Amino acid sequence: MEYTQIAGSNLKPSRIGLGTWAIGGLDWGGTDEQQAIKTILAALYRGVNLIDTAPIYGHGVSEEIVGRALAQYGRRAEVIVATKAGLEWHANGGITRNSRRERLVKELEDSLRRLGVDYIDIYQIHWPDEETPIEEAAETAKLFYEQGKILAIGVSNFSPKQMEVFRSVAPLHTNQPPYNLFEREIEADVLPYCHGKEIAVLAYGALCRGLLSGRIKSDTQFDPGDIRKSDPKFQPPRFEQYLRAVEKLDRFAREHYRKRVLELAVRWLLDQPGVSVALWGARRPEQLAPIDQVMGWRLDADAMEQIDAIVRDTVKDPVGPEFLAPPLSRAAA
């Protein structure tokens, strides 16, 4: 396993982090708690020491499962627990952004309780709330940091302008944006900004909701409630374009490195300047088996160019991860 240092902190996360959105069940067709706990433990035993979760993942279920896994593992100080705040769910199924001070205070206490811990290593504002001043969220996060309830401050899905405002009030150690071979919007501004300011990038969606795993085929059926039923990448005509790109990338990986597309996609992500951690979502222990094949090699500039060409020439109608964003305003929701 490779490890890195988060500037301005004592945290040294593994460069693969376990993402637990799917483990929460909601948006992914349900969850199997015992399998989920086994998956978290399998990641820890493989040297993955960063577990990323959020209250919105299963409306608390993901955090509770992570907490039970931590209790079984028993070595809390060895694990970097990252969670988030600032999204509120409602009885009608709606989700709104809410980074008001009182909301964040409540969320932190709820997360500490669900996780069964007395501090959180990385606490992240999940989405920018345009109806609450960024300064208010930053001040609240800074308070938690000064109280020792969190060890590092992060944001997720923030623009450089929003991060600049945040940093005017509080330290900012991490940013968690979507980033993978198929979703590369952050290369224009977010990634270079974070790289220049020494803000660690924890890239989520490393496998683009399974597209880059190599296991999804044109006839793959998704369970009711699975978010991929509404993901535009999984709808015609784009779906076939992305699947063809995966086939070509898999062929490239086998011919040049004796690897598969999954390992190529994660290695590509880790080799991007400014990326600290790739968040790898898994629901079963066996889905973590390829981790060892990602370590110990690198992609050179020529390989990067060839990979770029494959994606550019195959995916003619690309689309980003915009569909994931919750409503900007509480009124709209």
Describe this structure in words.
With 333 residues, the chain is an alpha/beta fold. The protein has a domain at 16-210 and 271-297: TIM Barrel (Alpha-Beta Barrel), CATH 3.20.20.100. The protein has ten helices and ten strands. The chain has helices spanning 33-45, 61-73, 101-115, 134-147, 160-167, 190-197, 238-257, 261-270, 291-294, 301-314, and strands at residues 16-19, 50-52, 80-85, 87-89, 95-97, 120-125, 150-156, 174-176, 200-203, 275-281. It has an eight-stranded parallel beta barrel, surrounded by five helices. It has a two-stranded antiparallel sheet with strand order 4-5. A hairpin with a 5-residue loop joins strand 4 (87-89) and strand 5 (95-97). Helix 4 (134-147) crosses helix 5 (160-167) and helix 7 (238-257) packs antiparallel against helix 10 (301-314). The longest helix is centred in the last third of the chain and has 20 residues, at 238-257. The termini are far apart. 47% of the residues are buried.
Unreliable runs, pLDDT <50, ≥5 residues? Answer: none
What's the tally of helices?
10
Distance between the termini: 42 Å
- Quote the CATH topology of the domain at 16-210 and 271-297: TIM Barrel
Could you state the order of secondary-structure elements as H and E?
A: EHEHEEEHEHEHEHEHHEHH
- What structural category do the secondary elements indicate? alpha/beta
The 3D shape can be described as: globular
